[in-house]
Specification:
The chain is an all-alpha fold. The chain has helices at 2-18, 24-59. The chain has a domain at 21-60. The radius of gyration is 24 Å and the shape is elongated.
């Protein structure tokens, strides 16, 4: 059991060395894109919800 854990850990370390990590600037830009797109989708969903609520109240 201990041998399997050591093997797993060494394989994880080996794979993590192969990962290409983003720079701080790339990470910042990606974060900004995610926040802006999330805001746009939230606003769109809110607007559609308000429109549908208005129509449902008008009908019923």
């Amino acid at each position: 059991m201990v041998g399997k854990i050591k093997k797993f850990t060494s394989e994880v370390v080996s794979e993590m060395k192969k990962v290409s990590w983003p720079s701080k600037e790339q990470l910042r830009e990606s974060t900004i894109v995610v926040v802006v797109v999330t805001g746009i989708i939230t606003a769109f969903t809110f607007i559609i919800d308000e429109i549908m609520t208005f129509f449902m109240k008008s009908i019923f």
